[in-house]
Amino acid sequence: MSTANRQIHLVSRPQGEASVDNFKLVEAPLPALADGQVLVRHHYLSLDPYMRGRMNDAKSYAQPQPLGTTMIGGTVGVVVESRHPSFAAGDSVVGMGGWQEYSVVDGGAAGMLRRVDTTHVPLPAYLGAVGMPGVTAWYGLTQICAPKAGATVAVSAASGAVGGVVGQLAKARGCRAVGIAGGTGKCRFVTDELGFDACIDYKQHRDAKSLAAALKEAAPNGIDGYFENVGGMVLDAVLTQMNAFGRIALCGMISGYDGVPIPLSQPQLLLQSRLLLQGFIVSEHMQLWPEALKELGGAVAAGKLKYRETIAEGLAATPEAFLGLLKGRNFGKQLVKLV
Amino acid sequence: MSTANRQIHLVSRPQGEASVDNFKLVEAPLPALADGQVLVRHHYLSLDPYMRGRMNDAKSYAQPQPLGTTMIGGTVGVVVESRHPSFAAGDSVVGMGGWQEYSVVDGGAAGMLRRVDTTHVPLPAYLGAVGMPGVTAWYGLTQICAPKAGATVAVSAASGAVGGVVGQLAKARGCRAVGIAGGTGKCRFVTDELGFDACIDYKQHRDAKSLAAALKEAAPNGIDGYFENVGGMVLDAVLTQMNAFGRIALCGMISGYDGVPIPLSQPQLLLQSRLLLQGFIVSEHMQLWPEALKELGGAVAAGKLKYRETIAEGLAATPEAFLGLLKGRNFGKQLVKLV
């Protein structure tokens, strides 16, 4: 087995925008396995927007990432060596190994390492449509938006790992799916490949009023369920098009430059339209993951749930790929391929 | 019986602030009763903030009040003459008679006229704690905030007809009740008469940050349930003090001067604290009124649910009393006494 490992550490906190200087690639020896431990070689790293929040030292729902440690993150890989009876060398596994080539995991810790079947589902899909992003989409749509057949569901960042699944699950439930994405290429993918009924390129609209007019055309009966990944102007526009008793799953909200929050322009619409809005974090609802993963895995295996991936190559490319994700340069799920 | 009636009509829509010029007192003959109709003499008119919204010609959850017609509003009174078998002269009734001395009501129309028992509950209380404001408080607290014993519940406009009931119902459920009100007199009433654990005078705070610091002192364990009657700076401050998984019942939101909405400064807190926020209008939940009125009526009859009234005298005083309500000059439930 290998005895050297390479890791990417967070070495400083961003002042405003994150940069490559906040990260450092370091080499570290791999410790010998203790009883109960499993050594995993990572094949793919997952890059996700939530990681930007961990880089800050601010009060949030998550602990800040400590300086001088390996960045947190989801990983898929293969077991190299196991001293735990539940795992054997050669097993495909999904875990939270972080930005590094190998991880040593306590095989008995709940939820830390899960064996997965790659017969019908490709290994990296367990970081996307059949992983945390997919379950996030499933939870917000089914547990918060809870649309009936015939309802209209809208979702922002619709070409992304979460948004793309939201619209496809909505379509499978007999809903009209309206996406919002940045760029004509992404919008074409959302309608032509993912099967949404419509997609609006928000970059073609310079203010919420213009975007709202486009939404009205794409959702002529109004919006009943909205899955929010971005906030800001997009949320302002969508609120004006929500039907009475509409339901909003709040999954992600960007900030303006330098981390200053973007205000919500017309909060009175929440009252006037008697909306329900709920923020959520999918890792706090682990009891529903099996049900979600069963639907998602089945749909991917059957070729009914589609997605796209942007794949960076090699551990050293991770910081640049992550910064690109924050700027929306990825197209679908952003991964780093290590093996 | 009397054959003359006096009414207050809406004759123009406000440009910005409402004024007495938007209203006009007119005399109108009382029509003869048709079969099935009931003539009610109003003893008290209810004045409520929602009426301001009806004065506008804007898209809202309610139809605008048509110009040249009697202002809408809740009323309690006594039946003068009845041509409907369910009502008899002398019955005490609550209805939606509007800003006038008499109303002619279809006795068979669902929910238009309800006989009430004034043995243990005073007649005007059916416009307040045992009426629409009381049910509004009950609905938002029990169906949206849904606090457990030991939780902290906060409410704005805490000395008002709705807010005062929210806190007392929360106390009855074993919660800590924190009020927010405008003025030291109102705050003293909220704690000393209504039994809240604490009350903050928002007028002592010039920004959300200062108000948030006072809230932190009044709610040292954070806020689990919030009943919002005002919005603006108060909501901005409360959001910073909400506990994870907190629940917000959105009942009222003022606008800034000239009807311009007041933005919500930090919407990302809704996500970070995984809050649920829901707007509601109590008239859309009529199926729960009997349960609510049973608790409220019992509590008032037993002397356990307290409230205060501000009473204007005579129909002609109604517009001024209403404008005073919009400026917070009332103390508790604003009524107009006609008889």
List the helices and strands and how they pair.
The structure is a homodimer.
Chain A: E1 4-10, E2 23-29, E3 37-46, H1 50-54, E4 69-70, E5 75-82, E6 92-95, E7 102-106, E8 113-115, H2 132-145, E9 152-156, H3 163-172, E10 176-181, H4 184-193, E11 198-201, H5 208-218, E12 223-228, H6 233-241, E13 242-250, H7 268-272, E14 276-279, H8 289-301, E15 309-313, H9 318-326, E16 333-337
Parallel strand pairs in A: 9-10, 9-12, 10-11, 12-13, 13-14, 15-16
Antiparallel strand pairs in A: 1-2, 1-4, 3-5, 3-7, 3-16, 5-6, 6-8
Helix pairs in contact in A: 2-3, 2-8, 5-6
Q: Report strand % of chain A.
A: 25-35%
Q: Quick one: how many beta strands of chain A? A: 16
Q: Which series of helices and strands of chain A comes N to C?
A: EEEHEEEEEHEHEHEHEHEHEHEHE
Give the name of the CATH superfamily of the largest domain in chain A: Medium-chain alcohol dehydrogenases, catalytic domain
Number of helices of chain A: 9
Question: Gap between N and C termini of chain A, in Å?
Answer: 15 Å
Main interface pair? A-B, 31 and 31 residues
Tags for this model:
9 helices; alpha/beta; homodimer; 2 domains; seven-stranded mixed sheet
Summarize the structure.
2 copies of one chain form a homodimer. Chain A has 339 residues and is an alpha/beta fold.
What does the model show?
The structure is a homodimer of 339-residue chains. The first copy, chain A, is α/β, with parallel strands linked by helices and 339 residues long. Chain A has 2 domains: 4-128 and 308-337, Quinone Oxidoreductase, Chain A, domain 1 (Alpha-Beta Complex); 132-283, Rossmann fold (3-Layer(aba) Sandwich), CATH 3.40.50. Chain A is 25% helix and 27% strand. Chain A contains 9 helices and 16 strands. In chain A, the strands form 3 sheets. In chain A, strands 3, 5, 6, 7, 8, 15 and 16 form a 7-stranded mixed β-sheet that branches. In chain A, helix 4 links the parallel strand 10 and strand 11. The first copy, chain A, is globular. The mean pLDDT of chain A is 94. Chains A and B meet through helix 7 and strand 14 of A and helix 7 and strand 14 of B.
